[in-house]
Amino acid sequence: MNFQRTILLGIVLICLQSWAIAQGGRKYIRQGNKEYKKEAYQESEVLYRKSLEKDQSSFEANFNLGDALYKQDKYEDATRRFADLSDEKTDNINLGRIYHNLGNSLLNENKLEESIEAYKNALRHNPDDQDTKHNLAYAMSMLQQQQQQQQQQNQENQQQDQEGEKEQQQQQQEQDQDQEQREQEQQQNKISEEDANRILEAMQQDEKKLLEELKKQQAKAVRVTVLKDW
Questions:
Q1: Contacts of the segment 49-57: beta carbons below 8 A, 24+ positions apart
Q2: Cα separation of 190 and 133, whole Å?
Q3: Does 107 reside within a domain?
Q4: pLDDT for 156-171, tens place per residue?
Q5: Are 86 and 94 within 8 A, CB to CB?
Q6: Same domain membership, residue 82 and residue 35
Q7: Res 179: pLDDT
Q8: Structural domain of residue 26, as residue ranges?
Q9: Number of neighbouring beta carbons within 10 Å of residue 148
Q10: Are residues 93 and 128 in the same domain?
Q11: Could you give the CA distance from residue 62 to residue 56 in angstroms, rounded to a whole number?
């Protein structure tokens, strides 16, 4: 009997302790919600984290922390928080809210395909959510626009590559033509060995004739001088 009372007393104490911890966590959640409503998102984040120190499994604290992170543009952290919550066993309304917020975080990270999938999951759990439908349509429109821009960019890049290749080929062709012209000019200016010998021989013959002519002139000059008599 005493043993049974000890067990029951232990169970009661454990329950009371758990209740006290949960109450402490709830207190921080309430304080965090007040700060959140005042748009003091950083302060609300701190309070939600304090609540989770008391009770890590608190769905409300985890969800609200994700919201506070999102409001501070901490989209990557918010994405992780909502992704973890998506594994929670809860009702469809809550799951729809989780996936909706997950889609918003992913959208702000420009992860369009992942955000679209998150919105679709939200609608699977809560098909009547008009906000999710609107965000899904927006994300799909953004993805289509992005794909069109990417396709246009690819076409422009391809056209630039083709133009660059064409210009390079034209430059190469001009270089080849210039090289060919230089070679032709060099060939025209080039004198064969036979021509060079012939020119040299002609020059030597001219020089020989010139020397002979000079000798004749000198001989005439001498004879004229001899005939003079004072």
A1: 51/25, 51/26, 51/27, 52/25, 54/21, 54/22, 54/24, 54/25, 54/28, 55/21, 55/22, 55/25
A2: 84
A3: yes
A4: 888 888 888 888 888 8
A5: no
A6: no
A7: 86
A8: 20-72
A9: 10
A10: yes
A11: 8
In sequence order, what DSSP letters do the residues of 15-45 get, joined into one string? Answer: HHHHHHHHHHHHHHHHHHHHHHHTT-HHHHH
The enclosing domain of 79 has a CATH number of: 1.25.40.10
**Measuring CA to CA, how many Å separate 200 from each of 119, 190, 195, 205, 207?**
97, 16, 9, 9, 10
User: Which residue from 96, 71, 76, 74 is spatially nearest to 86, judged by alpha carbons?
Assistant: 96
CATH number, domain of 28, equals 1.25.40
**How many angstroms separate the CA atoms of 27 and 154, rounded?**
56
Residue 214 lies in a domain: no
Over pLDDT 90: what percentage of the chain? 52
Q: What per-residue confidence (pLDDT) applies to 217?
A: 67
Please report the sign of the dihedral spanned by the C-alpha atoms of residue 148, residue 149, residue 150, residue 155: positive
Output the pTM of the full model. 0.62
The model's pLDDT over 40-80, given as tens digits with 9 standing for 90+, comes to 999 999 999 999 999 999 999 999 999 999 999 999 999 99
How far apart are alpha carbons 217 and 164 in whole angstroms? 75
